[in-house]
Amino acid sequence: MKNVTPPNPYETKDLLDQYLLFHYGEKKDIFPYSFCPEEVFNFHARCVSELMEGCAKKSSSRALDIGCAVGRCSFELARYVPYVLGLDMSSRFIDQAKVIKEKGACRVSCKVEGDICEEIEIVIPDDIDRGRVEFQVGDACCLSPGLGIFDRILLVNLIDRVKDPLSCLSQLKNFVNPKARVLVVSPYTWSEEFTPKSSWLGGFVQNEKPFWTSAAIEHILGPNFIRIKTLNIPFLIREHARKFQLGISEAALWEFKGN
Ligand SMILES: C[S@@+](CC[C@H](N)C(=O)[O-])C[C@H]1O[C@@H](n2cnc3c(N)ncnc32)[C@H](O)[C@@H]1O
Fold it and tell me: Domain 9-256 is of which CATH architecture?
């Protein structure tokens, strides 16, 4: 039998539309019912505000959004810093993010039922300077030294979607300025579809002992970063008009203390 590599789901039109709606959709387009807690909306703006809390505006600050998908966090970061780099492995997502940067808007097809879809237009708020944001295809597990050094780094719902989460986290110390802050956000949904089990940071049992992802992250980042705070941030992704994913990511904010 031929060994066929499964297609990357983040290169498909279905997930492109799902992520455009998740990132930029209004509440009425994402969840057209009255019974839903408010806290599940505006996930990306919430992550960015947790990362940027208390940050003094500096004209030289640089932010990196690793696994940016179609770019909402990157645009939100542009409210705070003059340069933002959004990086993702999916060229389909990055191409779309570049179109949104250029036009400030785009059409999205939202799944209603089966093949039935409705088109909406999503728009970037006027008060965001899109010129501050750049998008690039890149691998989160092997960042290029040419990217430079950053003051704020965001990894949102990424570490359980990469092949090598240990490399992804352990290289961060090489890309930060003194006192830089890093926010690692994840629901820890480990799956062999994305990460070989031997590379899971946690979520497994060995010799009857549970291994937790949060403790593994502490072990990886702890020598170079101080944990400032940990909190839960909920999110809601619409699959179609009657089916949704409700996730609760753990968000941990870290400050660089040196190598
Ligand atoms: C679950 S999505 C989260 C996207 C976005 N951060 C958000 O919160 O909406 C995971 C993202 O990670 C990207 N990704 C997966 N592996 C990657 C890698 N090795 N390098 C860069 N991006 C990667 C995928 O293309 C996808 O956009």
Answer: 3-Layer(aba) Sandwich (3.40)
